[in-house]
Structure to design on (637 residues):
C-alpha cells in the first residue's frame, strides 16, 4: 500500500523559464499528508453506513422484535422495493437529473399490468415485457423532453407526475367504475409470476424474494457504475456536462438511458406490487418519489450530480426500511416516520456537503 | 514527416497547418480578416491579442466550431474545412479549453480516459481495464513531468496547472498532432503558469504542434517559436523567434503608439 497521502510531485524540467525563476521543489510544502480517515470521507456511502448501524442499534435496543430474524424479514421487505427504486434513482441522480414521476410510475404500470391481464385476458408472460417496455417509453419521453429543451428535469418530470397521476385515477374510474383493478390472481400464468415476484423463502421467517431482486440489481448497478464505460459516462455527464461532451461522451444518449432505466425500474416494482397484492389501487406509488430521492441522498448522492453510489443508495433504503418497520415495532404511530425521514434527509445533506467539499478540494489556484 | 524543416526551409515539406488569408464574418461584424500564418510540427505558435482581437474566432475555426468565410486552411498541404469539432479531432487537432476540460469530482485516471476507456472482456462482461488504464494514465502524466501518487485522487483536488497537464497529456496520448491551448495560464498564479509552460514545452518536445492562445507576452515569449499578434481581427505581427524581442512583443501587444500616448499622458498628469 502506497503512503496514504494526497499529493502531486512536480518534476522540474531542465529547461529554465523566465516566468518561473524559482525551480519547482519535488514536493509542495503546502500539501499536507492526509490520513486514512480523510480518505474514507471520500467514499459516498460512509455516512449512510454509520447511520444504518446507529438506527439498527437503536431499534434493537428499544424493541424486542427488531433484532429477530422475523423482524429482519419485515424491515428488509420494506427496504427491498424502496431499494430497487433507490438504486435506479441514484444512477439518474449521479447523471445529474431527477425523476419525480418515478413513484407514480409504480401505480401506472401496476394498473396497466392489471388491466392487460384482467380485461384483455392477456397472458402474464406477455404482459410483463409489455409493461416494462411501456415504462421504458415513458422514460424515453422524459429524457427526450429534458435533453431537447434543456429544461430542468425537476419541472419536466413534475409534469409527467401529474399527467400519470391524473391518467391513473381517471383511466381506472373510466374503465372499471372503481378506483382499483382487482382479480389479478385469476389470470393465466399468475402462479409463476407470483413465484418470481412475490414468493418468500426461509420458511418460518418468510423473507421476501424482492430482497434477492434488490441485491442482484444493486450489484449490477455497482458493476455498471464502477467497471464499465457507461458508468464512467454517467459520472461525467452529472459532474460536468460540457467537459464530458468535449471529451466525446454521448451526453444525451447517456442521460436518456438513465431516464429509461428509472422508469423501467418503476414498471418492475409496479408489477411486483400488483402481483403481491393481487389488486392495484389507482393512487399506488403517489408520494413515494421523494422516498427514493431521500434514500439516494442519504446514501451519498449529491443533488448536483456526479457523485454517489448504488451501494450507498441501497444503504439509504435499508435505513428507511428499518425505520418504517421499527416505528410500529416500538408502538409509535406510523406518522412519526415522516419526521424521521426529514431528520435523516437533513443530516445526510449536511454530511454530503462536507464530503463534496473535501472531494472537490479547496485548492483551486 | 520530419521535425527538422523549420520556417527557414519551407520548401522541403508542407507545414502541419498553413493558414492563408483567413476571414470570418458574423453578419456585418468582421471577426477575422486576411489572417495568415504557419504552424509546424514540434513548434509552439503563440497567438496574442487583446480582448476582441479575434483570438477566439481564430481557434474556433481551427477546432471546427465555426466554418470560415474566406481564405484557406491547409493541413499537410491539403485544403481542409472542418464542419464539427469531432471532424477536427479526427484529423488530429485537439483543443484544451481553459476550465472545461476535466470533471472535478472524478478520479484522475477516469478523467484521462473519459470517452475512450480501454476495455477487456466481451458482451455484457465488457469492462474497463482498470489496472491498465491507471498504469497508462500514470505513465503518460509522468512523461509530462507530473508524478501522481494516487490516480484515484479527484481531479478537483489538483491545482489549476496540474489539471491543464491532465488535459494536455490526454490530448497528446490520444494522437493529437496539433494542440490548441486556449488561455491555459490566464487564471493561474505566476508559479502555476510557469508549470503549465513547462508542460507545453514537454508536449512540443514530443513532436506535437502547439498553438498557444494568450494575452500575456511574458508567458508567450519563453516558449514560443513563432508569434502572431491579432488586433481588431487582423494580423499585426507574424514573426518567428529571433526576429522579435520581448520588448517589441509587449509594445506590439499593447498597441504601440497607443501605449506611448498613454505613458505620455500619465507622465504629463504626474508632472502637472
Amino acid at each position: 500500500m502506497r503512503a496514504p497521502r494526497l499529493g502531486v510531485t512536480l518534476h522540474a524540467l531542465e529547461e529554465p523559464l523566465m516566468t518561473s525563476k524559482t525551480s519547482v521543489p519535488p514536493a509542495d510544502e503546502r500539501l499536507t499528508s492526509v490520513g486514512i480517515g480523510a480518505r474514507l470521507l471520500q467514499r459516498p456511502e460512509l455516512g449512510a453506513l454509520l447511520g444504518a448501524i446507529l438506527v439498527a442499534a437503536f431499534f434493537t435496543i428499544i424493541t424486542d422484535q427488531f433484532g429477530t430474524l422475523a423482524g429482519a424479514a419485515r424491515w428488509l421487505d420494506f427496504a427491498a422495493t424502496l431499494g430497487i427504486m433507490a438504486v435506479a434513482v441514484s444512477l439518474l441522480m449521479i447523471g445529474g437529473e431527477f425523476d419525480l414521476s418515478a413513484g407514480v410510475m409504480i401505480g401506472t404500470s401496476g394498473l396497466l399490468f392489471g388491466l392487460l391481464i384482467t380485461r384483455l385476458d392477456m397472458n402474464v408472460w406477455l404482459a410483463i415485457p409489455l409493461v416494462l417496455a411501456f415504462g421504458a417509453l415513458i422514460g424515453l419521453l422524459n429524457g427526450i423532453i429534458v435533453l431537447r429543451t434543456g429544461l430542468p428535469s425537476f419541472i419536466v418530470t413534475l409534469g409527467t407526475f401529474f399527467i400519470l397521476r391524473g391518467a391513473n385515477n381517471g383511466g381506472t374510474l373510466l374503465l372499471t367504475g372503481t378506483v382499483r383493478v382487482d382479480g389479478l390472481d385469476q389470470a393465466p400464468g399468475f402462479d409463476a409470476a407470483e413465484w418470481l415476484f412475490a414468493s418468500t423463502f426461509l420458511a418460518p421467517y418468510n423473507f421476501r424474494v424482492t430482497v434477492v431482486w434488490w441485491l442482484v440489481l444493486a450489484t449490477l448497478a455497482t458493476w455498471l457504475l464502477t467497471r464499465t464505460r457507461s458508468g464512467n459516462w454517467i459520472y461525467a455527464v452529472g459532474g460536468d456536462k460540457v467537459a464530458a461532451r468535449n471529451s466525446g461522451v454521448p451526453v444525451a444518449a447517456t442521460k436518456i438511458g438513465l431516464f429509461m432505466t428509472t422508469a423501467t425500474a418503476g414498471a418492475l416494482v409496479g408489477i411486483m406490487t400488483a402481483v403481491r397484492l393481487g389488486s392495484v389501487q389507482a393512487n399506488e406509488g403517489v408520494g413515494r418519489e421523494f422516498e427514493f430521492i431521500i434514500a439516494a441522498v442519504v446514501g451519498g448522492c449529491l443533488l448536483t450530480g456526479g457523485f454517489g453510489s448504488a451501494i450507498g443508495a441501497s444503504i439509504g433504503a435499508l435505513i428507511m426500511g428499518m425505520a418504517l418497520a421499527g416505528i410500529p415495532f416500538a408502538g409509535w404511530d406510523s406518522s412519526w416516520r415522516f419526521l424521521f425521514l426529514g431528520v435523516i434527509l437533513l443530516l445526510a445533506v449536511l454530511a454530503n456537503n462536507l464530503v463534496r467539499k473535501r472531494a472537490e478540494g479547496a485548492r483551486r489556484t | 514527416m520530419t521535425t527538422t524543416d523549420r520556417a527557414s526551409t519551407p520548401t522541403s515539406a508542407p507545414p502541419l497547418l498553413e493558414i492563408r488569408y483567413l476571414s470570418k464574418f458574423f453578419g456585418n461584424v468582421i471577426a477575422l480578416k486576411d489572417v495568415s500564418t504557419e504552424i509546424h510540427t514540434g513548434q509552439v505558435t503563440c497567438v496574442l491579442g487583446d480582448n476582441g482581437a479575434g483570438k477566439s474566432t481564430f481557434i474556433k475555426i481551427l477546432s471546427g466550431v465555426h466554418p470560415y468565410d474566406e481564405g484557406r486552411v491547409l493541413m499537410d498541404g491539403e485544403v481542409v474545412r472542418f464542419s464539427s469539432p469531432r471532424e477536427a479531432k479526427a484529423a488530429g487537432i485537439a483543443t484544451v479549453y481553459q476550465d472545461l476540460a476535466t470533471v472535478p469530482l472524478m478520479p484522475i485516471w477516469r478523467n484521462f480516459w473519459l470517452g475512450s476507456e480501454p476495455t477487456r472482456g466481451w458482451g455484457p462482461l465488457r469492462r474497463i481495464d482498470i489496472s491498465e488504464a491507471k498504469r497508462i494514465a500514470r505513465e503518460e502524466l509522468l512523461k509530462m513531468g507530473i508524478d501522481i501518487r494516487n490516480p484515484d485522487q479527484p481531479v478537483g483536488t489538483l491545482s489549476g496547472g496540474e489539471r491543464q497537464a491532465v488535459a494536455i497529456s490526454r490530448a497528446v496520448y490520444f494522437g493529437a498532432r496539433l494542440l490548441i491551448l486556449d488561455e491555459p495560464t490566464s487564471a493561474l498564479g505566476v508559479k502555476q503558469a510557469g508549470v503549465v509552460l513547462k508542460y507545453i514545452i514537454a508536449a512540443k518536445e514530443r513532436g506535437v504542434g502547439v498553438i498557444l492562445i494568450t494575452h500575456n507576452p511574458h508567458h508567450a515569449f519563453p516558449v514560443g517559436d513563432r508569434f502572431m499578434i491579432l488586433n481588431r481581427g487582423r494580423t499585426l505581427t507574424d514573426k518567428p523567434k529571433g526576429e522579435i524581442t520581448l520588448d517589441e512583443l509587449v509594445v506590439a501587444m499593447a498597441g504601440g503608439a497607443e501605449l506611448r500616448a498613454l505613458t505620455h499622458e500619465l507622465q504629463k498628469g504626474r508632472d502637472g
In short: Chain A is about 65% helix and 5% strand. Chain A touches chain B through 46 residues (CB under 8 Å).
